Amino acid sequence: MADPSPLYRLLYVSENRIAGDVAHVAREIEAILNASRRNNEALGITGALIFNCGFFAQVLEGPRDAVERIFAVIRNDTRHGKIQVMSAAEVEDREFPNWTMAYIGRSPSWEKALGWIKNDTHFAPDERCDRLFKIVMEMAYDSELSPDRTFAAPGKS
């Protein structure tokens, strides 16, 4: 039976506060993804996480109370700083229905597309949040089709 509560989508950005060498950062990101996928599946949340240019961008979509519960955990996570909600609203449909948490890591091809977030917005929400959301979607779907398959497959992420 479908969840009768309205579908809610939240997009935020945050500054990376994970200190350490590349291997340590990779382990922390893996820990974030494992916890996200486990918790999101249990709560009916889907979405995508980008870690690039020294920051995170994440979309969460699902029942509003579940999204807000997960976001409260994120706000208290010391691995995130300068957390800014770029958009939050009820929506008609999920844009990431096949992923409990898609992940897109650092990619030189996306550096330029994402660099403006930190430099131009200073993590402040404005009219450019639609641009960020479209970039997240494009990156997620492009990464799914990537031949290196570093991106988790739909339904398994």
In short:
The chain is an alpha+beta fold and 157 residues long.
Give a verbal description of the structure:
By secondary structure, the chain is α+β, with helices and mostly antiparallel strands. The chain has a 5-stranded mixed beta sheet, with helices on both faces. It is globular, with a radius of gyration of 15 Å. The protein is built from 4 helices and 5 strands, in the order E-H-E-E-H-E-E-H-H. The relative contact order is 0.21. The protein is 41% helix and 26% strand.
What are the low-pLDDT stretches, counting only 5+ consecutive residues below 50?
145-157
Strand order of the largest sheet: 4-1-3-2-5
> What is the tally of beta strands?
5
The biggest beta sheet reads:
5 strands, mixed
Order of helices and strands: EHEEHEEHH
Q: Number of helical runs?
A: 4
Radius of gyration: 15 Å
End-to-end Cα distance, whole Å, is 23 Å
Q: Indicate the mean pLDDT.
A: 78
Which structural category do the helix and sheet elements fall into?
A: alpha+beta
Name the helicity range: 40-55%
Which word captures the global form?
globular
Strand content: 25-35%
